[in-house]
Design brief:
Blueprint lengths: L9 E2 L10 E4 L7 E5 L7 E3 L1 H17 L1
Antiparallel strand pairs: 1-2, 2-3, 3-4
């Protein structure tokens, strides 16, 4: 991913110190939100805060149903 300014990536607090986690970055409060897998940091997906919020709600509801 090429940008004009460096992006500050954050790892999940549930991740161990290894490289098997999802990292998020949101350069501006209004978005966009970038995320990547730490094992392959060159592949970056980008979405909006609202869409990421919806995805997380679905994941949480699926996890709660188990």
């Amino acid at each position: 991913m090429t940008t004009g300014a460096p992006i500050s990536w954050q790892k999940s607090s549930f991740s161990a110190q290894g490289n098997n986690c999802i990292e998020l970055a949101c350069p501006k409060p209004e978005g966009p939100v970038h995320f990547r897998e730490s094992e392959d940091p060159e592949i970056v997906l980008t979405t909006t805060p609202d869409r990421l919020r919806s995805l997380l709600a679905i994941v949480r509801s699926e996890a709660a149903a188990r």
